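=== RUN LOG ===
request id: a7f3
mode: sequence -> structure
chains: 1
length: 275
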Amino acid sequence: MKFAYFPGCKIPFYMKDYGISFEAVMKKLSVELVELPFNCCGYPSRSRNFEISILSSIKNFALARKYDLDIITPCKCCFGQFKHAAFWYFQNKELKDKIDHLLAQENLYWDGNTRIKHFLSFLHDDFGIGELQKKIQEKLPDKKIAVQYGCHALRPFSITGFDNPYAPKIFENLMAVTGFKPIEWSKSTECCGSPVFKGNRELSLKLLNNKMKSASESGADYICTACTHCQIQYEVLKFENLPNKYHLTSLLFTQILGAALGISKDRLSITGELP
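=== RESULT ===
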């Protein structure tokens, strides 16, 4: 099995642990990752120049098509942007014609057949829960985990097609394979606050606090993410030197799954012990 690997912009600079552990898990599962000269997914420019944001994603699709590869990413923001771009590319003929013209100047084109997969949906739908269970070497301790879905993958379902936006189960099903116990909590599908941090810091931290309060009151020992922006947001208290009154820390699912698969801590970029 082979994919074009799209880490996005944040992972190489801010979340290297996520990239290292993701690559280690994929190697363990015999999934080959191919690095291509991708550009940004286009999400950062969506609110400033819609056409440029769509072009950015479609150009990446076209590049992967050139190598006859689908794309996989551990970033839900990038996943959501790719899905939006594909939707609008085929909905707006004028936009499509303009993008096709620009792609042709670089000897590229896209026929719409290249797929974008998020890490979680790949594991759940393509690799399969049953096959993943066979790979587990060490069931992890009985800890209660609140899984953080991330907004960009869930909504709108008509575009992303990731999981039921009101009652998603993919992440919980995958977490249960590791031995950790996913819990139900009221704010699992709500925004972590990351998208508004730069524009409205007070609101962003309020959203984060409400989520941590909900997870704590639901009995969670930890919060687990599979989204670059969500993990950065949950770590903001540490980096901003702000109080964490609920004493909850966030864990990367790639590191949790990797540990259950028997991958060594150094290959997962884990310092210290997993819970």
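=== NOTES ===
DSSP finds 13 helices and eight strands in the chain.
The longest strand covers residues 144-148.
=== END ===
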